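[audit] Reproducing an earlier prediction to check determinism. Same input, same settings, fresh worker. If the tokens differ from the archived copy the diff job will pick it up downstream; this log only records the rerun itself.
[audit] input (250 residues):
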Amino acid sequence: MAVKQTAGRDALGEFAPKFAQLNDDVLFGEVWSREEQLSLRDRSLVTIVALMAQGLVDSSFQYHLATARKNGINRQEIAEILTHAAFYAGWPKAWAAFRMAKEVWAEAEEGDGKARHQNDMVFPIGAPNDAFAQYFVGQSYLQPLSTSQVGVYNVTFEPGCRNNWHIHHAAQGGGQILVCVAGQGWYQEWGKRARKLQPGDVVNIPPEVKHWHGAAADSWFSHLAMEVPGEACSNEWLEAVTDAEYGALN
């Protein structure tokens, strides 16, 4: 299958049309596409080492690192490739290459984890929960599912993310119900042992109970949060769950 590339035409099509054509059609369209000679994975490996040897750890190197990952080179393999090449290309060049490779694979693995988590449930993850970010440790996401009759929200936590201790106040009725839909998480009430949460678990949170909930350290986690109707309902956000408190659970 031919590799399609338009970077040359996009960047230099008007200024250097011949160079753009050679880059897109010959280098990528012909050389990179000769999989009967070398696989895309092998070509990515050769390209990365060649660029690293020249000290060209720029945006093109980042592009080829990302391409290498798409072509099947995993995190352990790229670490071994760069370590081996360091003895021939130079130690400072390897350090520079490792810094960029670490970023590329970390971003990719985070994206993959989020995508896998989305595939595990029918509800959308939603947008970053920026309005309440100050009350969370780590990144959370929010997707409103119902805002009439009873409020229902899908709340998603990245691994290690949790909300602060908080209390749902109400003069009458009130409180919250959590329905776990994907991943692994935690729920804890003040003065009690934490409860591990899995898909299908239901948590009934009475009003006036200090508590927190969030993801396990090694798992994305989503639950539906349903507001129990009541009178004079409000939330009181309190202190964060410390790393020591959270770490003791994991």
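[audit] rerun output stored. Observation attached for the diff report: The chain has a mean pLDDT of 92.
[audit] end
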